[in-house]
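Ticket #4471: complex job returned nothing on first submit. Input attached below:
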Amino acid sequence: MTGRRQVRGVAWVAVRMAVGGRDQLTRLLVMSLGVALGAGLLLLAAVTLPAIHAHEMRDAWTRTSAHNVRPAQDEAITDPLLWRTRTDSFAGQEILRVDVAALGPRAPLPPGLSRLPGPGQRFVSPALRRLLARTPADQLALRFPGRDVGSVGDAALRSPDALVVVVGYDPAVLRGQPAVEQVRSIETQPASVSLTRFGRVVAAIAVAALLVPILVLVATATRLSAARRERRLAAIRLIGATPRQTDAVATAEAVLAAVVGTGLGFVLFAVARPFAARWSVDGSPFFPADLRLTGAAAVAVVLGVPVLAAVAALVALRQVRISPLGVSRQARTGRPTVRRLIPLLVGLSVLAVAIPAAAASRAESPLWLLAAAMTAVIVGIVVAGPWLTMGIGRLVVRTARGAPTLLAGHRLAGDPAAGFRSISGLVLAVFLATITMQAAASAADPAPGPDQVLVPAGAVGAEFLYRGTPPLPAAAATTLAGRVRRLPGVRAVADLRWADPAPPRPDAGTLPVVARCADLRATTLVATCPDPAATVGLDARGLGNGVMEDIQATTGAVDGLPMLALLVTTDGTQAAIERVRTLIEASADQLAWLPWTTAEVKAHADKQAEQTDRIAIAILLATLVVAGFSLAVATADGLLRRRRPFALLRLTGIRVGDLRRVVLIETALPLLAATGISAGIGLAVAADVTHASHLPWRSPPAGYWWLLAAGTGAALVITLALSLPLLGRLSSIQAPHDD
Amino acid sequence: MSAPLLAATGLTKSFGPTAALRGASVAVDAGEVLAVMGPSGSGKSTLLHCLAGILPPDEGEIWFSGQRVNDLTEPRRSRLRRERFGFVFQFGQLVPELPVVDNIMLPALLSGGRISAARSSALALLDRLDLTGLGGRRPGELSGGEAQRVALARALITRPAVIFADEPTGSLDSVAGELVMDLLVDRAREQGASVVLVTHDARVAAFADRHVTVRDGRVSALAAA
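Support reply: We reran it on our side without changes. The output follows.
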């Protein structure tokens, strides 16, 4: 009975010490807000990956082919369906166009449709319907023949703003056209299972990049004002509290803050979720339902955060000796030595082996090895940090010219662990973001060489190149070129004709096409050309990739030849571009690939790199926010911990301004030095990643370095802005008596 | 003659190369008020800390109520401090976040006492120590003398066998100090508690039944008050 009452008594003491007064409530609130930020971000991270997976799941049907990996229907009992998917564009937005023609009543039905559209009918997504309503028909609607008979439902839409149209055809019209397949089922296998090796490497890094700073923040926040708490614990030790009871009191306060913070984190998550749904982390926004928290994730956060807080509190208590007579730091075994570099070197060595293993294998084990190695490097940086900080401190002491610099140097050299603790979160963010950004830069499509600059900006291209199908017949080609020329905003049209009786072979390398020299010059495809016409070499991969070369004069009549490709230069206005595109699509249904612009070709080529960039920038920003908060909390805690020495320094005549300089120097110096070193180690690890992924080495873009400099600077400014006023209050001449 | 309530023999205690106690011996009878005097750095506070089970001596023995304190584990010594000893130190060692009444209740609650009973006892002690109406204040809102009386109330709440007072008037003026000493000695006698009073102030020592002097780590003189 007494035991139970003792537990109740300790709980009462813990609660009273945690929330018994205004100061405690303020402290608890600050701790809880730190935890809330961490918990909220954890929850967002927890729903983001399943949401991306939901994107992929709903995208799976667009990958339907004659060889579906996981068919939605039993192919033995369905009728065939003629099927073609093409990517269209409007003002830089992708439109998925699916052409279908049922060959029987039991043809498979794609998701999101109530039935298959018949000839002259179409289903459109809600976003496309809105776009059609506000866009002139000659710029968009005329591309999609037929009348609306229904909406494409959410089940078939990657995101709420997805532009999708399913066009019904007469089988006789669709059969035999380029890129048309006969399918018997709809694909349900998402693309994620075929995630690239590079993607898996980046994913593993991204998870570590986000999780570690959040965990550091939670641990830092729950240790706020630990020094004051420890002195209170010493007071209750004097009157007979056992070490276990003081552990329980300290842990209870941290857990209470964590519980409140986790609750606030859920509120933060609920508030942020609608905004997060609009955040195109993988290139598309989410349906709010995509960001649904699973029970397992919620339980993991609800239990995990308080457990982490309790562990952090207990670890912090182990670092001090709380006796009835007061608190003393545990005697350190000695100053940090160069041996502290060993874990970092071990981690980097393991990483050097793990990265190529992960990149070369689709198995799960190398990914775990990679994650373990990454963790080892992170731990290594944390372990090595105090040694680095001590070195900086000694250097500062040797070169100091004033009291503030000398005090800061001695502080860094004398207690390097405390000096580094306040910047560890930022250091990790820099290290991980540098890796991600470098990897993203290396994954980006290389910029075209000077001899490859071919298609002018604002031009629309259309190609009739597809697996040996015949080009556009001469008469239709001439009509099409003539109509395009007459469109408003069109500057020049180059129609590239095919002189060979046999259809072109896409694997031919360079295709000899015939064109009027005046058109080639007007569209700036070539600078010089022997009039009236020339045979030029066109890269078989298409106008967007190739160069026009081997220009030879020809005397044949151009108009009598079928058209292989069409390039239209415009005044660059969106209306002109879309009118050209709409006219070409409406006139020539046999395009395997719908007309494109230079910017769209580039955007498509850089899609993966852009996605990685977007994720990396998101992670960098999130980690900077988290790490900045960690830095502010840790700096404030450092000031609270040194309240008495600072106040005594004030009593000896040192000005507040000098103390501010002490804090500035001791925060900024290790931060800047460690940021540089972390970025350097990050670049080294990234070099290994790119090498293992057979990608060319490229430095992160200049924008990254600016973002990093601005983010680090902002974190420093915010930290100092929050902590320096605190310094004035803490170091007042009354402070020595307050305790 | 009965055995002393608290006795130490041959205590030695060093902090690194500095020897604080060099074979100190002392005994305290039940209900006795013993003043431990000596100059600064003589080892008198270390002697008190050893007697109270706060610091383990390097050598020597400490006996309290028939049990050898040296042999007790840290949790057992904590329990001893909680249930049988009370403390009044120079700066009170109150928890500044807690109101006065909560500070007084702390030892009782840590011992498993009922919250309601502990509160009643705390309020009663406030009355007995002329602190009526101050139960809701924080320690920072009290005068030095009031804070020491709160510390005394906290020391008394578990009806300890021994009260250890280390320079209890060290931070007070003479009037407040005298009041605190009056209350300390009177209430201890009311409860039958012994008092080990460390001081370098002869006026404070005058409240004791007996004096000992610590010099260079040894209890070098014994005298009746």
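The CA atoms of residues 11 and 60 of chain B lie 4 Å apart. Closing as resolved unless it happens again.
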